[in-house]
Design goal:
single chain, 129 residues, mainly beta, Archaeosine Trna-guanine Transglycosylase, Chain: A, domain 4, six-stranded mixed β-sheet, 12% helix, globular
Length: 129
């Protein structure tokens, strides 16, 4: 897919902790696990939250040593890092990445130039600086 210009980013975003956001926008993680379901479908900006899941980082490095996951200090946080398309919300999925209880199925994920912005819970409309 062609690179999306900053002004063309989806108005709706979903905040995801790192390293999960990096894994999504770099095409490794096809599902985002949540405790709540959604009817949302369509393009979404992926916002990397400020907090970092160190336990998740260790799990990824152990389970998928072939993934070139950057060092913790190198992964961007606190802004939009990519885009993806939500195609479904499932309660079961045959994927190592699915933990549930709900999974937002994603495709067409890709990185975009970093745009600093505040995140919020759930799907949210974000304001470009």
């Amino acid at each position: 897919m062609p690179e999306i210009a900053e002004r063309e980013l989806p108005a709706v975003a979903l905040s995801v902790r790192q390293p999960w956001a990096w894994l999504i926008v770099n095409g490794y993680k096809p599902v985002e696990n949540r405790t709540w379901p959604t009817n949302f479908r369509g393009p979404v900006a992926i916002h990397a939250g400020q907090t970092y899941d160190m336990e998740g980082d260790s799990w990824v490095r152990d389970m998928f040593p072939e993934i070139p996951l950057p060092r913790v200090a190198e992964i961007e946080r606190g802004g939009i890092v990519g885009v993806a398309r939500v195609t479904d919300c499932v309660q079961t999925m045959d994927s190592t990445w699915f933990f549930g209880p709900y999974g937002f199925v994603l495709d067409a994920a890709r990185t975009v130039p970093f745009v600093a912005c505040r995140g919020k819970l759930g799907f949210f409309r974000w304001v470009q600086p």
